[in-house]
Design brief:
The structure is a single chain. The protein is mainly beta. It folds into 4 domains: 255 residues; 139 residues; 206 residues, no CATH class; 87 residues, Sandwich (Immunoglobulin-like), CATH 2.60.40. 5% of the residues lie in helices and 40% in strands. The strands form 8 sheets. The protein has a 16-stranded parallel beta sheet that branches. α5 links the parallel β26 and β27.
Length: 764
């Protein structure tokens, strides 16, 4: 009631001592645009807007005025829906940011299609619907929907006190915090407890409905309809500067838009959010909607199942970054064909506080880390203990930014089958702190051809592809097996010591087992593996690994804590330059050159399907050891999917030599038992190698089709005998023109009958 009385007093005072400017698009009023009326107005004036869609980004420009639709004079809510300010994705629909006082009123509009505005030199876009700074306006009977911004998709307020009465904030999107409302820097919002607001189905990477910084006072929210009746910190974020929840938001909710579902949900590109989502036959359309609908329950973990397809904002209104729910996993149908595309706008995944989930069978593409914590995923458990995240069958390509693909902080981490290639950023940072004995396990990883921006961000540090520790003090145990880390480039020349491969901080116990690290490069001093100045109490054990061809070197140690030295133990590994090639800057750091080590050319199969596999005359064959530290188990297969141990002993490196298929000792050609096809790499750019296993001879047809079933390229149309064969598709059609990114099908016919079909994905 007090807000209504205040509103009436403001209006009466304005009408008694002011001019009213009529805004009509047909030219019969004072002006045809709202901004013209605002420019003409002075304090206490009214800008009265008649029905229509106004494609404007209006700015109150310090005027303490009333800007309203005919709802102001009639009380008819239809005028709110029919008087529209459309921001045309060229800025905030409305800006109130010049110390406007409490007599300033915005009333009776629909605000839509705003994209946020900048108020500082950072050019960060805030307040998709309304940007409020250093002001005290009243917002009354407005519908704020379908706007987006970096922060505050619906409303962004900074150092302001605003009054909301009868305002509906619906389906707005923030790439960072506050999908509906963001409050920062001592801002306060007063909700009318009689003319109730509605806040629902907004989305953000943190605080989907409301995000409030620590320096804002406690908040009371009076709403008719909210997204759920009992929102957790997925919907409302209010925390200290170090991430500790403040629990200072009190909600008075009468109705909920969603009833949380404590079960697995299903999503498909041909789904519908009106479906129940409980089966593959009734899938939802959007992953972010499923995340808002699913119940986060520590006693009953749930999964969102994602069908094969391309998920993006332009294709199917997918909102990124996805804000993960605690105890809720994301599992795609297949790593190759379940593709999440951020379209170079923002990162793809965020997760805060409640973790404990699996992300599996997904390809992430086109993430952008500029202005964000990471280009693909930023997940932190701060300040909790015992939290974990598991990644399995994950591909990351074509992501960019000055930060890393993955910033996974303060958690236990298990990564299986991980492929990161062709990105313009580094790969992974895992920070050790808060977890008493943090565990990081990486098995089967392909990290290839990633590079930092050239030139890099002048203020950034020298980031390696993998970094462990650097800031924390608690021990971290890291085990990496079957990893190829090759041909990555680091450009940061402002730092005298760099690493293009693995950077290691303090209190790290790192085991590298059967890894191949080669042809990586960085400027200045450093190495493919670098233990930095704070690498105290760190122990690195290297087993069965190859470090070769890295520039400027393989291993660089510059821990400057003499009382807490670094120790490196190298067993049965090939190190380019040998013991003498290891740069140990300080005498107190220890390098133990153990048995079985080599300093030779590893003889990589540079022209083969796997260029860092071993040729038959490689000195690394059968040169490894199975005498590994307790608790380390070798995987069953190598990085190419072949048996991890072949012959008399295990090999060095990520790939196990499988014998010479043309050996004189075995003149008999091995005939496949079944006819099948496969290709590698997949996804690929620009070429992929197609392997044929032909169990029968005859007329062979191998044809590429697009997703519409149209023939793209005939690779083979000839008679052939049984056996193993390989062909290369260079991503062109029969007219030698490059084909577009997307899904393709490789179909094999033998004697006119279809024998095998395989999917492949071209990513550019």
């Amino acid at each position: 009631m007090k807000f209504f009385i205040l509103f009436v007093l403001i209006c009466v005072n304005s009408w008694l001592h002011s001019t009213t400017y009529h805004i009509k698009q047909d030219g019969t009023g004072n002006f045809t645009t709202i901004q013209e009326g605002i420019i003409a107005a002075t304090d206490s004036d009214t800008v009265l807007v008649y029905t229509g869609t106004f494609y404007e980004n209006i700015d109150f420009s310090g005027k303490n005025i009333i800007c309203a639709s005919l709802y102001l004079t009639t009380g008819n809510e239809e005028y709110m829906y029919n008087t529209i300010i459309d921001g045309s994705q060229t800025g905030s629909c409305v800006r109130i940011m010049s110390e406007e006082d409490s007599t300033t009123v915005l009333c009776g509009f629909t605000l839509t299609n705003g994209s946020g505005s900048s108020y500082s030199t950072t050019n960060t876009l805030r307040g998709g619907g309304i940007l409020i700074k250093d002001s005290q306006p009243m917002i009354r009977k407005c519908l704020i929907k379908n706007n987006y911004a970096k922060a505050g998709g619906g409303i962004f307020c900074l150092n302001s006190q605003i009054t909301l009465a009868g305002v509906s904030i619906i389906n707005n999107h923030s790439y960072a915090s506050g999908g509906g409302i963001f409050m920062g820097n001592y801002s306060e919002i007063l909700f009318d407890n009689e003319m109730l607001c509605n806040i629902y189905l907004n989305y953000a990477s943190g605080g989907c409905e409301i995000a409030k910084t620590w320096n804002c006072p406690p908040l009371e929210v009076f709403v008719d309809t909210f997204t759920v009746m009992e929102p957790d910190d997925y919907f409302i974020v209010s925390a200290t500067s170090t991430g500790i929840p403040l629990n200072d938001v009190t909600l008075y909710i009468q109705n909920a838009k969603l009833e949380p579902i404590n079960a697995d949900l299903y999503v498909s590109t041909d789904g519908n959010n009106n479906n129940n989502g409980l089966s593959e036959d009734e899938p939802l359309a959007n992953i972010n909607y499923a995340l808002s609908l699913v119940k986060s329950d520590s006693l009953h973990h749930n999964t969102i199942h994602i069908a094969d397809g391309l998920y993006s904002n332009s294709m199917n209104n997918q909102k990124f970054p996805l804000c993960m729910r605690g105890y809720v996993s994301l599992i795609g149908e297949s790593m190759v064909n379940t593709i999440l595309d951020a379209e170079e706008i923002c990162m793809l995944i965020t997760g805060y506080r409640k973790l404990d989930y699996l992300i599996k069978n997904i390809s992430f593409i086109n993430g952008n880390g500029n202005g964000f914590f990471a280009s693909c995923m930023y997940i932190t458990a701060y300040p909790q203990q015992g939290k974990f995240v598991n990644l399995e069958n994950i591909t990351i390509t074509e992501c960019q930014g000055y930060n890393r693909n993955l910033d996974l902080i303060y958690m236990n981490l298990d990564i299986l089958n991980f492929f990161s290639h062709s990105n313009y950023c580094t790969c992974l940072h895992s920070l050790n702190s808060f977890q008493p004995e943090q565990e990081v396990i990486i098995e089967n990883a392909y990290i290839h051809n990633n590079q930092q921006y050239d030139p890099p961000d002048p203020g950034s540090d020298a980031r390696p592809q993998l970094s462990f520790g650097m800031l924390g003090t608690e021990p971290m145990n890291v085990t990496i097996t079957n990893m190829e880390l090759t041909e990555n480039i680091q450009y940061q020349s402002d730092w005298p010591e760099n690493s293009s491969g693995i950077g290691i901080g303090d209190n790290i116990n790192l085991n590298l087992v059967n890894c191949t690290i080669g042809n990586n490069s960085s400027p200045g001093n450093g190495g493919a593996i670098r233990i930095g100045p704070d690498g105290q109490n760190t122990i690195v054990n290297i087993y069965n690994s190859i470090l070769y061809g890295d520039n400027p070197g393989e291993i660089y140690i510059d821990n400057d804590h003499s009382t807490n030295p670094t120790t490196i133990n190298i067993h049965h590994s090939l190190i380019d330059g040998g013991y003498e090639g290891i740069e140990n800057v300080y005498s107190w750091n220890i390098v133990n050159w153990m048995e079985g080590n080599l300093d030779e050319n590893p003889m990589f199969d540079s022209l083969g399907t796997y260029p860092f596999a071993l040729l038959e005359n490689s000195p690394c064959i059968d040169a490894g050891t199975l005498d590994l530290p307790p608790g380390i188990e070798l995987p069953e297969f190598d990085l190419a999917g072949n048996p991890r141990i072949y012959g008399d002993a295990i090999d060095m490196g990520a790939y196990e030599f499988q014998g010479d298929p043309q050996s004189n000792d075995e003149n008999e050609i091995v005939i496949p038992k079944i006819t099948q096809i496969s290709n590698y790499p997949n996804p690929f750019n620009p070429t992929t190698t197609i392997k044929l296993n032909l169990a029968e001879s005859g007329k062979i047809e191998l044809v590429i089709y697009n997703i519409k079933g149209q023939k793209v390229k005939t690779l083979l149309d000839a008679y052939s005998s049984k056996g193993h064969f390989e062909l290369i598709w260079r991503g062109v059609d029969d007219n030698k023109k490059k084909v577009a990114s997307g899904n393709y099908f490789i179909k094999l016919k033998v004697n006119g009958e279809e024998r095998a079909v395989s999917k492949c994905v071209l990513l550019k």
